[in-house]
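Quick board copy: two proteins, each given as sequence then tokens.
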Amino acid sequence: MARQARQLSESAIYHVMLRGINRDAIFLEDADYGRFIAVLTAVRLASGCTVLAYCLMPNHIHLVLQTAGEPIGTVIKRLGVRYAGWFNRKYARVGHLFQDRFKSIPVEDDAYLVTLLRYVWNNPVEAGLAAHCADYPWSSRRHLGTAWPALDDARLRELVPEQTLSELREEASPAAPWSEKAVRTGRPPRFTDEAAALLLAQASGVTEPALFNALDALLRRQVVCELRTRGVPYRQIARLTNLSESGVRWLHQAAGSAEEAR
């Protein structure tokens, strides 16, 4: 079946959503979020697009962009290819990082733009990652009114009246089932040991720590990379394999070094 043609926006403003393939994590460490923001800044300059808002969540991304010379598909391809290539090299993985096709919704009126900004900025609160949207470090919300390289704040203020932005800034965040631990760490709830053990068994084909440690070193490195890509922490992998946390980190780093040497 042929794909439906992407709907174009008369205003050239789009709400873009990128998700990890199989809903896997696309950000595992703070450095990953920082890298994506650096790539977004570079693509913004190269394509001439305007970044009105963004929010980076552990396994998906929200962007509010206004295109210029390049169509939205070209802009997002630049962005996705650059970040996915870096992520795959870092974590010694291959294949797609994002779902096959990004979503883009045209934004054609001011009221919808304001509603969209509120939705994008409140994503971390709804997900339990922050008590208030301004507290979340990987959203443009905290950079309103500043000269942040990844954000076109001046253009946003041309489109949205200052009074409206002030009202958005002062709004209380919606009620959300966030926990103190999630807010304190800025990270989503992790896998239970049972769920992580199932991932380990699926990736390695074994269910006992002794059997895992008897596997070929290359396979053990690949399994650790797979679990890290799925968002399983080093400490939990160590607990499930009877390895030290430093030993798990070594396997992961060795896999990355072997990938770079190819």
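And the next:
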Amino acid sequence: MAARGLAGAVEGPARVERARLAAAVAARGVRDAAVLAAVGAVPRHLFVPEALRGRAYDDAALPIGHGQNVSQPSTQARCLEALRLEAGDRVLEVGTGSGYQTALLAALVAQVFSVERVPDLRDRALVALRAAGVTNVSLLVGDGTLGWRDYAPFDAILVAAASPEVPRPLLEQLAPGGRILLPLGDRDHQVLTLLTASAAGSPEGGPPAVTRTPLAGARFVPLLGTFGFDA
């Protein structure tokens, strides 16, 4: 059976390699069965440059151009696990990148809305997502720190770049009880942080109250935009 949002990708090329990668991710402590199934289903070789496809199923970050990387799969899996995603969730992803994490999200939730600031990366991710049979993702070229207000509120928001603070528009677009996961800190050192919104929702004219839970040290590329770092 194909994973949620993947049209037959499980039986495609590199099935053995995907299983090996899922086992490596599990060995690093990821226990969420749905997340591990997604890692075993998504054909990562479609989301890396052709010259690096021999390393696509290593548990390693790989460059994708424009100063960006596709992150280490075990790191992405830990982020997905921390978000406590549910099948019916609507998720905002800030930083589409290669589209691999987008595809993992699509295998776990009902709908993914992903924002990428670099048009070439968005275009390449769209091609890869289509090749992987992903059917429940919408992509936008824009400033990810502004979110995607047309489709808010979101049950979860995953930010794939480091920010000095939580962008206010993302807080405003979070559903009651929703979660945001992002690396917080300066350009060189961050703490991967989970924010959980109050179930009571937002007070009039402001973002919701949130509980912050630091998870682990991290080092991500900087989040550029109105509510992130300057370019």
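Board note added afterward: Helices lie at 15-27, 33-41, 73-82, 100-106, 119-131, 168-172.
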